[in-house]
Amino acid sequence: MNRLTVVAATAAMVAATLAVPAQAAPTAAGSATQTEYVVLYKEGTSAADAQKAIEAAGGTVVKANTEVGVATVSSTNAGFANALAGAAAIEGVAPNRVIGSAPDDAKASAARKAPSRAARNRGVEREGRGGKGPKWGRNVKDEPLADLQWDMKQIHADEAHRYEQGDKRVLVGILDTGVDASHPDIAPNFDRRLSRNFTVDVPADANGTEIDGPCEDDPDGSCTDPNDVDEDGHGTHVASSIASPINKLGISGVAPKVTIVNLRAGQDSGYFFLQPTVDALTYAGDIGVDVVNMSYYIDPWLFNCADNPADSPEEQAQQRLYIAATQRAIDYAHAHGVTLVGAAGNEAIDYTKTNVDATSPDYASFPGQATRTRTIPASCVSLPAEAEHVISVSSTGISKRKAYYSSYGNGYIDVASPGGDVYDTPGNTRDVSKATLSAYPKALAVANGEIDANGDPTVDYVVKDCKGSTCAYYQYLQGTSMASPRAAGVAALIVSRYGQRDRLRGGLTLDPDRVEAILKGTATKTACPNPPAFTYTRNLPSGTTVTATHVCEGTAGSNGFYGKGIVDALHAVGR
User: Could you tell me if 276 and 299 are in contact, meaning their C-beta atoms sit under 8 angstroms apart?
Assistant: First the structure.
């Protein structure tokens, strides 16, 4: 992304002010309450010295990432944060969550709580459902469902495949809710050996509000899922968009011959927390992953502010730590050859302006913390999308207009990519086929009652395709979460086309800065609308009409809606 001056200024402030102020110690009820913290080591400090400081303050290291110096720590010492704040080996400490069994009324509490940001994102992504299903005939020339993939045509991926389909030596990491490796349109390209799950289910937050729910209720009966499942569906959609193979079944991804590596960083519930993100990014760098896709935000803050007066000192310290730790992990991955691609967000706001956020914190790290309305100056950053070295991707609809939900901003958006817009229709009424179609785990379709006893879809947004006795399911979703993987797929084609042998880790490699330069340089330049204040009209099924106006700033070559342009797979591979 391009807001480097903002990030650099924020980072400088972070480095100077990471410690939790004395008055901000968690108010745990007695020393018996066990609280979890995130601890950031000072750069250059040995893990042994940091651990000694943590233990001296009454903490126990639960998990440590020594590559970037981030640890998850538990303690029953109510004064742990204050005791550790002055340690020479420690740069910052912030509460993560209170540990313990969820109260009996956790589910009732969850029902009373306002919808989480994850739930709101799912609402946007699943918009357009409930009407007539798409009309299609099985394509016998290309992939069977190719006629439903308007997105592939928009970026000329179908044409690019005549010249470059990707290289199996190119690894694409999916930082998401998991990947269903049993899906027939993912399995051929899935690397189970390299895949990892960096998450542990979180039953409830510090207020007792249900997050992932009791571990015994999980399909596998544990708090730790295997590295080849997706109990949400989001990650599977993303992985398929990038690399579903050309196999005469269902769809094709943008880079159908690259290898998928599940680097799960998201909870079953759709939350994404700091430690799994840091661990996934450093692991990606260590094993030679070439491209990662990050279609999410690190919870609990949509925007992380170093010194927002709307936040308590404790919350400010937490956000400063998140900014520093995330940037360290991203720097590590980038330095190890990883091209990082991220979704721009579904808030329909200009990130370069002052905004109002009413969604954070969406997870209580300590008792009493609650979602509230905050004014957000442009100096605050959304992670990982606004971190340095991350390519921020906005979303387009079938007409190539910026999608109504896509966030934007001149200097924030790097490129645009098709993510769908169900209201991008002549009458501004919704049409689910104007979202994007990718793989859907059969287990979820069964659990949600979306297929019948014969295995046939019962809803308009699920599509089935079979090759002989092998059948697969696909679902329509829209969002910048869907735009980002299509840009990541083009990045994977670039590495496949121009990459050199990686003598250190095997496979192919290409400097991430060069990948980004090619991605931007071959994108189709797309000017702002004329006039630049574009009004979106949505005629809802209820009969209500909703309008919103977004202002595009910049030039034809670089602007807030499209960045450097809409990615183009054909041009990216030199045709």
Answer: no
Answer yes or no: are the C-beta atoms of 422 and 435 closer than 8 Å: yes
Strands 291-294 and 171-175: parallel
The single-letter code of the amino acid at 558 is S
Question: Distance between CA atoms of 27 and 82, rounded to whole angstroms?
Answer: 12
Locate 93 and state its tokens: 């400490």
Q: How far is CA 231 from CA 147, 196, 250, 267, 474, in A?
A: 28, 15, 21, 9, 15
Its pTM stands at 0.91
Burial grade of 561 (CB within 10 A; 0-12, 13-18, 19 or more): buried
Angle subtended at Cα 483 by Cα 516 and Cα 492, rounded to the nearest 5 degrees: 40
Secondary structure (3-state) at 537: strand
For 555, counting Cβ atoms within 10 Å of its Cβ (0-12 exposed, 13-18 middle, 19+ buried), the class is exposed
CA dihedral 296, 299, 300, 302 (to 10 degrees): -30
Q: How far, in Å, CA of 346 to CA of 481, rounded?
A: 8
From first to last of the 575 residues of the chain, give the pLDDT tens digit. Answer: 444 333 444 444 444 445 444 333 343 334 458 899 999 999 999 999 999 999 999 999 999 999 999 999 999 999 999 999 889 999 999 988 766 544 344 333 433 344 555 666 667 877 877 766 676 666 656 799 999 999 999 999 999 999 999 999 999 999 999 999 999 999 999 999 999 999 998 888 888 888 888 888 877 778 899 999 999 999 999 999 999 999 999 999 999 999 999 999 999 889 999 999 999 999 999 999 999 999 999 999 999 999 999 999 999 999 999 999 999 999 999 999 999 999 999 999 999 999 999 999 999 888 888 999 999 999 999 999 999 999 999 999 999 999 999 999 999 999 999 999 999 999 999 999 999 999 999 999 999 999 999 999 999 999 999 999 999 999 999 999 999 999 999 999 999 999 999 998 889 999 999 999 999 999 999 999 999 999 999 999 999 999 999 999 999 999 999 999 999 999 999 98
Secondary structure of residue 44 in the 3-state scheme: coil
Contact 462, 448 (CB under 8 A): no
Contact indicator for 391, 339 with CB cutoff of 8 Å: yes
The answer to whether residues 478 and 124 touch, using CB atoms and an 8 Å cutoff, is: yes
Using the 8-state DSSP alphabet, how is residue 199 labeled?
A: -
CB-based contacts of 213, cutoff 8 Å, min separation 6: 107, 201, 203, 268, 269
Backbone angles phi, psi at 481, to 5 degrees: -65, -25
| φ and ψ at residue 512, rounded to 5 degrees | -55, -35
CB 200, CB 223: distance < 8 Å: yes
